[in-house]
Design brief:
Largest sheet of chain A: 8 strands, parallel
Number of helices of chain A: 8
Order of helices and strands of chain A: EHEHEHEHEEHHEHEH
CATH architecture of chain A: 3-Layer(aba) Sandwich
Radius of gyration of chain A: 16 Å
Structural class of chain A: alpha/beta
CATH superfamily of chain A: P-loop containing nucleotide triphosphate hydrolases
Oligomer: homodimer
Helix content of chain A: 25-40%
CATH class of chain A: Alpha Beta
Shape of chain A: globular
Number of strands of chain A: 8
Strand content of chain A: 15-25%
Largest interface: A-B, 35 and 34 residues
Chain lengths: 223, 223
């Protein structure tokens, strides 16, 4: 028996993704639902970060999650079990990203009347997801310490489209050649306006700053 | 002044990638050149692994490297400076993978008469590069400990197309919830024939086993 709803996403038939994305954003505005698009490499800690974040937020606002994955549904199940919130799995059928139409297919399966915030955990990939506007209000990404502080130089588009960069796994910084200031400089070279929050999803460090940012965002979107 | 040759790769005009890849492999066989396609997530340690490996190999066989990246050329420069071998940079212009025709564009810029082994460092991405045969003799990948032992379940195609899986950054295993045996089981679930070698590119541990495998491969290809 499936523990969470699993949606097989079909490839978008619409070429005009930017228009689709804008339309979706307008609809979400009308419904008072804030959509956050969360991107990262595989293994950066997206799911653990979400569990921590949702457990901080769920008494204050109503949160739902859409987990996009090529195949498995381990993440959606993990989030549902750890937080109890609405959590659905989107299967991309091998596709490396989500566009606005694919995001809409996911949202059609979320009870939006019971959500203030929907978080879309995009496919683990620093390349393709950066190229497609999903219709989210903001893009956020996680860069984890073991990946290295040079990643903004190597994946420039991803860093330039993100409003928020979470730097995760700060607890292992002593074991890696990772310089936080150099990393911040590299991010700001690509995107001077990016907000950067160091976090450790495992210990919970920095999650308060992230949730504070999110709460402000959701409240001003719903006005 | 450019420190290494930088090639701007154009999108392939040929739809029949599998045929192109087979043709390229046959040509390489005739020329006695072995091509290895090395894939991984961003930040798994591909470049550091290559530097260690090349320094072990370069007195035994002639090695050349093609570094594929969306934009920067830091990796090709780093490899050239650390090893002194032929090292060129392929710019994919935002593209998330290389196919056989794009690989050929790169090889056209390598002095193949001076190479026994060419290593293609593919774009850092666990999704798209798995879908395209580059014309390489073998596919190898690096999974690093901080990414987690569950990645074979989440990126099944990548693990199923790889003949060799290097598990890198074994030195930080005590700081992560990573079980080597569970990881091996997960890899073999997807690909029972995959050879797995744990390595630590930073300390050099396991690089001997990797180079031994590579030498055997190259020698039998050249027969």
């Amino acid at each position: 028996m499936e523990k969470v709803k699993v949606i097989e996403i079909k490839k978008s038939v619409f070429a005009e993704n930017d228009k689709d994305a804008d339309d979706l954003r307008k609809e979400l505005k009308t419904k008072g639902v804030y959509l956050l698009n969360l991107m990262s490499s595989p293994g950066s800690g997206k799911t653990t970060t979400l569990i921590q974040t949702i457990n901080w937020l769920k008494d204050k606002i109503r949160v739902a999650v859409m987990e996009a994955d090529i195949d498995s549904d381990v993440d959606a199940v993990k989030i549902k079990e750890a937080t109890g919130i609405q959590s659905i799995q989107l299967h991309t059928g091998g596709m490396c990203h989500l566009d606005a139409e694919m995001t809409r297919q996911g949202l059609d399966n979320v009870a939006l009347e019971d959500a203030d915030l929907v978080i879309l955990e995009n496919v683990g990939n620093l390349v393709c997801p950066a190229e497609f506007d999903t219709g989210a209000v903001r893009n956020a990404m996680i860069l984890s310490v073991p990946e290295g502080d040079d990643k903004p130089l190597k994946y420039p588009l991803m860093f330039s489209v993100c409003d928020l960069v979470l730097i995760n796994k700060t607890d292992v910084m002593p074991y890696f050649d990772f310089d936080l200031e150099r990393c911040k400089d590299n991010v700001h070279q690509r995107n001077p306006k990016a907000k950067i929050i160091p976090i450790c999803a495992k210990t919970g460090e920095g999650i308060d700053a992230f949730t504070e940012w999110l709460l402000k965002e959701v409240n001003s979107w719903k006005k």
